[in-house]
Amino acid sequence: MSITAFTRSVSDVAAESGVAPSAVRFYEQHGVITAIRTQGDQRRFDDSAACRIRVAKVAQRVGLTVREIAEIFAALPADPQPDDWGRVATTLIDEAESRTAALKAYLTDMRGGGRLCEIEV
């Protein structure tokens, strides 16, 4: 991807993704999105930054850490296409289903009336 594709400012990405500017910087710091610096040392992001943040917010609701999300996004090309996002969706769905199954098992164990400290985690 060429440098000219990095045209969005922190405030642009914040507005497009529905987060505060500080969150944009947080996601960049943790590798969820990537910026380049202008000669004036301002961050500039590509067109996928807001989408990546919105997907990251969903992934966080599933229970993934920012580090796990950054690892998933590391496999994305610079200009993700629908098939690329489809693979991310499959990963998130699989993770959500796995975590849901584990939570249901914990609920069953907690309802069993046994000692909570004996539940296997």
What does this protein look like?
Residues 9-75 form the HTH merR-type domain. Pfam families: MerR_1 (PF13411). It contains five helices and two strands; from the N terminus they run ααββααα. 58% of the residues lie in helices and 5% in strands. The protein has a two-stranded antiparallel ribbon. The chain has one domain (3-118): Multidrug-efflux Transporter Regulator, Chain: A, Domain 2, CATH 1.10.1660.10. The protein is mostly helical. The mean pLDDT is 91.
Keywords:
single chain, 121 residues, mainly alpha, Multidrug-efflux Transporter Regulator, Chain: A, Domain 2, two-stranded antiparallel ribbon, 5 helices, 2 strands, elongated, DNA-bd_dom_put_sf
